[in-house]
Amino acid sequence: MESRTSGESLRPEAADREHSAPAGPPAKEWSRRAILILAAKLLVALLVIAAPAFIATSFVPGVSGVAFFGVLAAAFGWISGGPKIGAAVVVALTGLGVISILLREHTWALALLLVLLGVAYGYAASRGVGKAVLQLPILTPYFMNDPPALFSDPPIVDARYLIGVSVVMLLAGIWTVVVLSLAAGTRHLARLDVPNPRIPLEYGAILGLFSAIVMVVATLSGLQTHWVWITLTLYVLADPQQLFTPAKMWGRVSGTLLGFVVVSALALAGVPDGLLHLLALPALWLCLVFMVIRRPYWQYTLFLTIAVILMDTSDVDTQLLNAERIGFTVIGAALSILVAFLVNLFGFSRVGLSAPERV
């Protein structure tokens, strides 16, 4: 999806408009000076954004982990469509996160919520604004799988906890939107032309159904797994227009694997956990820079993977987590291919993966 930042004109590429790393002009259209200025602005912005959360964590355990969700939702919402979209995504994710935590013992209710999120994404995509809500089905499952620790670890889910999570996420998210807007200018949401709105609706519904099935199977099996990496991959690879894009899938898988290699090297080097959490900030910074200047997809994915893994507060061995996530990334990629096949089968009455050129 195309979005614009004041002072820079960004053109969409038709083959990659709905990708998580938005399409746009090749990197060579950015001068080195412009890239350095943008990178400096975003670095200062992230330091200003992160400082309150890390300071607060010294007094209230878990604040930085909860704030990370608000920052992610706000940052990608801002990139997708500006401050209003960023703020709306944060508010929506906060509500969905609290609902998911409250329903954590009701597997089928959570499954229904995932289906509805898929349908909502499909509806937004059919209106040409799917990217604006993409972070909701990506991040909501994290609250279902493992509610973020706050005040204590594991958290005690009571009124104090739920209010605390809501306040931290909202403050972190709104603060992120304000700082990014001041540092890097204004961005605007642009609608895509959708020739056949029915196809994104079917696509989103199938994504939601597959996400629900993954969650139900993982939950009822009783295994302590990070199944959310499957649903994350499903939506990160989501392409309601082209359905299947080999280059994007390869970029996602290769970037993720490289991210695992980097994190594994840090773990093997004996880097302390506290420092690992701090390193998530520069990883997120590089992710945002590469996303805005529209670098190859694998580069954006590499740094996003590093940031997400380094912010994980699980006690599970890092190497085991990496192996699990690699497997789940491959499963998610395979399921995304199956989704494209089913949409072609039911939506276009044909056998194939990519959408027909003219629909």
Describe the structure.
- This is Fusaric acid resistance family protein.
- One of its GO terms (cellular component) is membrane.
- It is found in: Membrane.
- InterPro entries: Memb_transporter_dom.
- The chain has one domain.
- 69% of the residues lie in helices and 0% in strands.
- The chain is built from 13 helices and no strands.
- The longest helix has 30 residues.
- The protein is globular, with a radius of gyration of 19 Å.
- It starts with 31 loop residues before the first helix and ends in a 12-residue tail after the last helix.
- 50% of the residues are buried.
- The N terminus is likely disordered.
Q: Can you give the mean pLDDT?
A: 83
Order of helices and strands: HHHHHHHHHHHHH
Give the count of structural domains. 1
Tally of separate helices: 13
Main β sheet profile:
none
- Radius of gyration equals 19 Å
The first-to-last residue Cα distance is 20 Å
Shape descriptor reads: globular
Portion in strands: under 5%
Unreliable residue runs: 1-28
Transmembrane segments: 34-53, 59-78, 85-102, 108-126, 161-184, 204-237, 249-269, 275-292, 326-348
InterPro entries: Memb_transporter_dom
Protein name: Fusaric acid resistance family protein
Subcellular location: Membrane
